[in-house]
Amino acid sequence: MSGLEFEILPSESSQPESELKTELTPRAYLLTRLADVKLERPLWLRPGHIPKGKIVLIDGDLATDKSTLALDIAAHVTTGTVWPDGSAGCDPANVLLLTAEDGLADTVSPRIRAAQGDASKMFALSEVFKDGKEVAITLTDALPQR
Q1: Is the model's pLDDT at 133 over the cut of 90?
Q2: Which helix (H) or strand (E) holds 142?
Q3: Quick check: 123 and 94 in contact, CB under 8 A?
Q4: 93, 122 contact by CB (below 8 A)
Q5: DSSP per residue over 100-140, as a string?
Q6: Quick check: 51 and 45 in contact, CB under 8 A?
Q7: Which of 80-107 are b and which e, b meaning 16 or more Cβ less than 10 Å from the residue's Cβ?
Q8: Contact 52, 44 (CB under 8 A)
Q9: Torsion of CA 133, 139, 145, 146, to 10 degrees
Q10: Backbone angles phi, psi at 44, to 5 degrees
């Protein structure tokens, strides 16, 4: 049940049929039967709250301090200090930050320093170039694939 090949048909378009590119793009999909998956315990960055090696979203209404919370978490990760609830900190590690709203010089860096984070372990991905032109940052395009 794995390695099945599918062809993706062009999506509908308002262009005249004569202008449509009709070349089909092959895609490969790996299907895994969940009954065949060996269970593992998750690894935790902050036990019970933040899984290690997973994507974590912080969502909420405007002006509810999501960025401040994210940078506080980053500060704890870069220094390995104990968490606010007193649970053990993680081993100090680097942090990759993607931000589209806050300035690095006037907002992000001062907040990291105020939270006593290690700025030498913080990296901000601020621009991505493709074919010599700046493009929007997307995880699928910006980060290397395994």
Answers
A1: no
A2: helix 139-142
A3: yes
A4: no
A5: SSS-IIIIIHHHHHHTT--GGGEEEE--EEETTEEE---HH
A6: yes
A7: ebebeeeeeebeeeebebebeeeeeeee
A8: yes
A9: 160
A10: -120, 135
Which residue has 């909420």 as its token pair?
Answer: 60
Of 19-28, 36-45, 50-59, 103-112, the range with the lowest mean pLDDT is: 19-28
Distance in angstroms (rounded) separating the CA atoms of residues 44 and 12: 44
pLDDT of residue 136: 77
Buried b (16+ CB within 10 A) or exposed e, 118-132: beebbeeeeeeeeee
The DSSP code for 51 is E
Q: Which of 38, 39, 41 is closest to 51 using CA atoms?
A: 41
**Cα end-to-end distance, the chain, whole Å:** 22
For the ranges 22-36, 44-58, 112-126, the lowest mean pLDDT is seen at 22-36
